[in-house]
């Protein structure tokens, strides 16, 4: 018999593996996006943890992260201590990461798997969607949350809804890879598609059973890595060789697209993956001249800009539609709408072996 | 009898009183333009002193400056020690500043008065112009150098040439205040006008005699300030109360526009007062994309920009015709052609009491 608590309290599983550079010069390999306070006083990780603060519904969380960030995570979550911080020896994508969390949980525990670096502005809508999903989750379904699309985005995967299997919950008809613009426009017009936001809810044992069926070698590798794990306080360090013998695969490919009892809960909750400086401009509070400004900034006759300083005073006069970000050691200027060009800058800095990519500002 | 040396060796008099903010964030009240290496390895002051390096023609110089900058000046000129560094208790414009230098010089010494923060790219042309002027200077004329205008600049005073009084030297017909654009265009088309670049050559006694006639109170005040001066090594600190009792007046108003034996030597010598970031863009060596870049900079798909860093790495992608300047504590972004808007930024920073105006970066 499982302890009763495991079937009523949901375990948040926060995936903090990213070390993206799309928000350079703020995000660095040693201080990635989820560890930054991008949209307010709290970091993305802290805000993710805070969504599950209701102790009548959620138990302590499990964080899966890169060893580089363990110390910072422990500091950021001192007021909301996780049950476990699992330090991946190296990233193997989401399927093995979630497998560790599932194996460390009570079998019947519902796991709410969340990326650590997304914004959800309407948290009550998210919680309500979780409640709609719970009866199916307890019955062993694998549930994903479908974000209501508001533009024909080509950077996300889509989920096509099938018939309703519970109030507000649909069987997944298909997971669809990132589409081209034409197909994305058709999905948006159709109304029967959601974005795949990478948020999942299922019982630990349901996930393990699916892995056992579709990816037994992966499950064996993760099990072996936990048998040889080092443990210190809440920190768990899986044995490196065993863990690295797992293939690198997303939960979508490994499980969700192949299992049968897979449901989607469509939800409008002010979601954003904060994937670019342009996204941050959209999320920010614009002033009368449509500027989103943070830090020590002087903007004169300036319109439609995102200007952010983490150190030097940043001054601008007579400019329009620019993204300007400054730290103590780096400054970046791009036209608004071109924030994907951060990649080009990061590549150029890599080619020079420039230290600002690694060192936290 | 004057010592023979004073009539053959010219004394450079370098006016280093400016503390402009037109090149903020590089120029600061404690580190003004003349003390910065803006166009190459050497500072504007060092390059000004270096123009008079020929010891067969020039004696040691006299620097007139603000006490704030004395130490830095002494350091910058260690290899080219001036005869005197005169520390003005407060700025009283150029006429009293030059009067101190004149009173500290042998009466017959020709004084070459120069701002410390101008560029002269063709130094041989400048020296040749000085040689053309010398016979008249020795005869007691006050000589100014007329910069060949290459655009209808409304920010400078103009000089209208009269008849030739020596080969390549003309009597001044009139000094003309900063004109409006229409008149500036007419002057440029006329061909008989030069810009007044604020460079002068005259015997010390000729200048003193002119002051005695036109501004006797000023001369008396400066004389009194020198009688009560403190002296330490090459440093001369005129008595403050006496010096401050002088009116504040330019040499143009006080002397040049009123004296009779005033000549102009027209000269084309690649002159610039480096009065703005736009001027620095014009002076710099552009790359294939018309960018002028200095310091740790990554510029991708970027055209026609001035990008300068004195500290952080400055990165840009997909921008055009911007001026981007960064120091450790400040960043400034303006459209090229709008560099006069630095004033607006500096005013806004003053209103905030922002420290970056004063502290050298």
Molecular structure report:
The structure is a homodimer of 361-residue chains. Chain A is an alpha/beta fold and 361 residues long. Chain A folds into 2 domains: 4-272, Spore Coat Polysaccharide Biosynthesis Protein SpsA, Chain A (Alpha-Beta Complex); 277-357, no CATH class. The first copy, chain A, has 12 helices and 19 strands. Chain A has helices at 4-8, 44-50, 70-76, 94-103, 123-138, 181-190, 204-214, 216-227, 240-244, 251-256, 277-283, 342-352; strands at residues 11-16, 62-66, 84-88, 110-115, 119-120, 142-147, 158-166, 169-176, 193-203, 230-232, 235-237, 262-267, 271-272, 292-294, 297-300, 306-309, 313-317, 322-326, 330-335. In chain A, the strands form 4 sheets. The first copy, chain A, has a 5-stranded mixed β-barrel with strand order 6-9-7-8-12. In chain A, strands 14-16-18-19 form a 4-stranded mixed sheet, covered by helices on one side. Chain A is globular, with a radius of gyration of 21 Å. Chains A and B meet through strand 17, strand 18, strand 19 and helix 12 of A and strand 17, strand 18, strand 19 and helix 12 of B. Strand 17 (313-317) of chain A pairs parallel with strand 19 (330-335) of chain B, so a sheet runs across the interface.
